[in-house]
Amino acid sequence: MTTLKFAERLRDLVGGVDVLLSDIWGVVHNGLVAFPEACEALHNFRAQGGTVILITNAPRPADSVQRQLRKLDVADETYDAIVSSGDLTRNFVAGHPGQKMFWIGPERDSSIYRGLDVGLVPLEQANYIVCTGLFDDETESAENYRAMMLEARERQLTLVCANPDIVVERGDRLIYCAGAIAELYRELGGEVIFYGKPHRPIYERAMALAAERRGQAVPLSRVLAIGDSVRTDLTGAHGFGIDCLFVTRGIHAGEFEGIDQLDPASVKELFGHPPRALTRELRW
Fold it and tell me: Model confidence over 189-219: pLDDT tens digits?
């Protein structure tokens, strides 16, 4: 294992790369503001003939994600397509017509079931659970849901996690996501189905879209993932067989403060499977 240094520019890493699979939250924006240099980098890669697929653990359909990006002034020309864990979760719900669902999540995620044949019911009447987040992610943690998860385990309900992230940046704070509740439920012995990174379905869908855009299948050796989470982005890319550019400005920022390069022992401790390169923030 070699020493990892920080790359300053995306353009120095994309020789031989046809497709970028880029995370959104933490790479393109922080939930409150977009990162203009990151948007410019993705746009420039496209201008050179590359394809950019945004892959996100957002528990909402791709069109809802696009609306949020537009509000943050992320131009449509920044990317070719979006794949969200919300879309994959909606596919699960659509595949279980007429069944009753208990939903855990804020009202802003209601598009997860909108237009589908599903009945929203209390936990004691549900056939399964869909978790898109916490009811109030400003004040709650997974521990607030322990009693609920114990009840769900007693009923042997499957929990479908629409966002495997444990935490995400919101401005300069970290807030809990659906993954925190899902991991608690799994620790308690409950059955969990995860959609989104680091699990294969979201990568398979992204690669299918990339092949559509380019008119042919793309070898994994010509794909580069970009993300800021060891648990989701880096692990997912490694499991799928693609390289990853790791952005350190995100949820792991504190671990990289003041560090210019990582020796082999630190690489193994922080990453396990090392990324192709590190960058503090995405720029062309």
Answer: 999 999 999 999 999 999 999 999 999 999 9
